[in-house]
Amino acid sequence: MIPGISSLTANKKIYFASDFHLGAPSLKESREREFTIVKWLNQIEADAQAIFLLGDIFDFWFEYKYVVPKGFVRLLGKLADLTDKGIHVVFFTGNHDMWMFDYFPQELNIPIYRQAQTITINDKKILIGHGDGLGETGWSYKLLKKIFSSSICQWAFARIHPNFGFRIAHFWSKKSREGSSLSASDSPDPEKEWIFKYCQKIEEQAHHDYYVFGHRHLTLDLEINQQSRYINIGEWMDQYTYGIFDGKTFKLLQFEK
Fold first, then answer.
1. Average pLDDT by consecutive 10-residue portion of the chain (257 residues)?
2. Which domains does the chain have, with CATH numbers?
């Protein structure tokens, strides 16, 4: 459970965004995207009670004991500004930025979650997460994620010089990004969409009004039953889509650059 956000005050909203992949595919394109993201944050802060960032915000991230990755200063500064103003910002790690530790909680006052979490807002029950590794994802990926999440793997990577380690990591991230996402023009069969199937199984065990995930680089709004929907909020490399919850209904919108 995520504390501190159980009801919306008048005229306030909850925002959701995922898969910025800052750092990819080039410094120039990433910087332009970062400017757009900050512009969006500036626009929504007037009525945002909370902002959920659902993973893969960075194409790769690793925190050493005393340093963090170079770049992204505009986004980090804006996030600090939002939390200083009392706006809740919550970060879910994705498969590209799973190696986050204490920097965001200590420096930006942003809690980090590594697993999907349930939150109830205005009596609406929402399951939130990045989306990777859920349901019938291949065993090889689940094994790889378990290895990468291990303290031994993280300790070993920290001993590699950053110039070499980050080169390897960005190459790996590119391959992972190309393999795990679909293009915006694809129309997946809901019965084969594995996050949707995962949500169906969860719904059989415990009712949720909304299931909100990222990871797939698709904007999806699929009905699980008459009282429950699976929503995938898309990405910011091409679509610039996000979710907004006003306490009663959930909408998918596109930010006009």
1. 81 97 93 98 97 96 88 97 98 93 96 96 96 75 72 86 76 64 56 89 97 95 96 96 96 92
2. 13-254 (3.60.21.10)
